[in-house]
Write a structure and sequence with these properties.
single chain; 203 residues; mainly beta; UDP N-Acetylglucosamine Acyltransferase, domain 1; seven-stranded parallel sheet
Length: 203
């Protein structure tokens, strides 16, 4: 088991990660968000499975595909694309041209522009510089199951779509790539152009 609370201190309201692996959360994120939307307070405007806080700013050209929750004080830049179940906690900034898919992004984290965050859980105060991505699928492998490395053990997630679990206060440099199944402890720094591949498997 990978305890999410060892990576992320404060989770978005209504989400209980206790006893759940991060890839279980992302795999079921559509159902989770659909259950949460009716419980939101009056600060949200809700239309057809899309809940946007009244203090959030959404620029022209943004595509939102239900279900989506966009929290208080969020900023979504022009032509960003949110799909597959997305929960943005308060104060999150998503820059122009970013794609967020089946992911949870916690308080005051930001993606600069042209980032892809897929099937991932992102802690608070995390910063993605331009072009950095969380890869969520092994296109190049015959065996596509994703494995993670935790406490010197290799864990088979038994799924083929999972990105990253990124702890609070991490910094991801421009054009860095986090391979599927990446786990970053709180405060980690990934250099520009770096490839993070924590589990190397034979093709």
């Amino acid at each position: 088991m990978v305890p999410i609370n060892q990576f992320i201190h404060s989770l978005p309201p209504g989400i209980n990660f206790i006893g759940a692996a991060p890839w279980e959360i992302t795999s079921n994120i559509i159902s989770i968000i659909n259950e949460l939307i009716p419980l939101l307070d009056d600060g949200f405007t809700i239309n057809d499975g899309i809940a946007v806080h009244t203090t959030a700013v959404i620029e022209p050209g943004v595509t939102l595909k239900a279900p989506v929750i966009i929290g208080a004080g969020c900023f979504i830049g022009a032509h960003a694309y949110l799909r597959g179940g997305v929960y943005l906690a308060s104060g999150v900034s998503i820059g122009p041209g970013c794609e967020i898919k089946s992911s949870i992004v916690c308080h005051k984290s930001s993606a600069a522009h042209f980032n892809f965050i897929g099937d991932s859980i992102i802690g608070s105060n995390v910063n993605f510089e331009a072009g950095s991505v969380t890869a969520n699928h092994y296109n190049e492998r015959v065996a596509k199951n994703i494995f993670v490395s935790f406490n010197q053990a290799i864990i088979d997630t038994e799924i083929t779509k999972f990105g990253s679990l990124i702890g609070d206060n991490c910094k991801i440099g421009a054009n860095a790539v986090l391979s599927p199944g990446t786990l970053l402890a709180a405060g980690s720094i990934v250099k520009r152009l770096e490839l993070v591949e924590q589990v190397k498997m034979a093709d």
